[in-house]
Design goal:
The protein is α+β, with helices and mostly antiparallel strands. It has eight helices and five strands, in the order αααββααααββαβ. The protein has three domains: about 50 residues, Ubiquitin-associated (UBA) domain (Helicase, Ruva Protein, domain 3, Orthogonal Bundle); about 90 residues, Elongation factor Ts, dimerisation domain (Tetrahydropterin Synthase, Chain A, 2-Layer Sandwich); about 40 residues.
Length: about 200
């Protein structure tokens, strides 16, 4: 498909789906001959690479957001950092942080990333998973155990959970798209979830 047949509507629709820049969306559509699914894959790969390059940049700005669920039985307090106060004051960034609060209230993660899960908890899960697949070939055991550990992490680590507002994507994928659209490193620093009686 030539550049002439890639319509502005196609580019805008792709931008709305991915949060990528207009020029990046147009290039991806041209590269994939107008195939939207392939263009999304290209943009996601590019976004992940872009986010990885920004990961070492200092994040000294940001915001702290709170959320109290209806009825006052669940509350969330979160700190999300970015590089500049310009982005920290941006409504899109603030909306993202508020959505994270809603996600934490609903999904009840325990930590931000899998690296924060205590080694003893990971080892305990590994032992349980290994005992469940006893008798299988060693190569299969390894793959099954790793798959069960990935599932374990997706239940307790915020970045690995399916995002409540878009379950097709993980919180990490949503974060990566936000990094790409703002052009800044963004880090979910920490959060606390309170539940009445627990």
């Amino acid at each position: 498909m030539s550049t002439a047949t890639i319509s502005a509507t196609m580019v805008n629709d792709l931008r709305a789906q991915t949060g990528a820049g207009l020029l990046d969306c147009k290039k991806a559509l041209v590269e994939t001959n107008g195939n939207v699914e392939e263009a999304i894959t290209i943009l996601r790969k590019k976004g992940a690479a872009s986010a990885a390059k920004k990961a070492d940049r200092a994040t000294k700005e940001g915001c702290i957001e709170s959320y109290i669920h209806l009825g006052g039985k669940v509350g969330v307090l979160i700190e999300v950092n970015c590089e500049t106060d310009f982005v920290a004051r941006n409504e899109d960034f603030r909306g993202f942080v508020k959505d994270l609060c809603l996600h934490i209230a609903a999904a009840n993660p325990v930590c931000v990333s899998r690296e924060e899960v205590p080694a003893a908890d990971v080892e305990k899960e590994r032992e349980i998973a290994t005992s469940q697949v006893a008798g299988k070939p060693p190569a299969a055991i390894q793959k099954i155990v790793e798959g069960k550990l990935d599932k374990f992490f997706s239940t307790i680590a915020l970045l690995e959970q399916p995002f409540v507002k878009d379950p097709e994507k993980t919180v990490k994928e949503i974060l990566t798209a936000k990094i790409q659209s703002t052009g800044e490193n963004i880090q979910i620093r920490r959060f606390v979830r309170y539940q009445l009686g627990s």
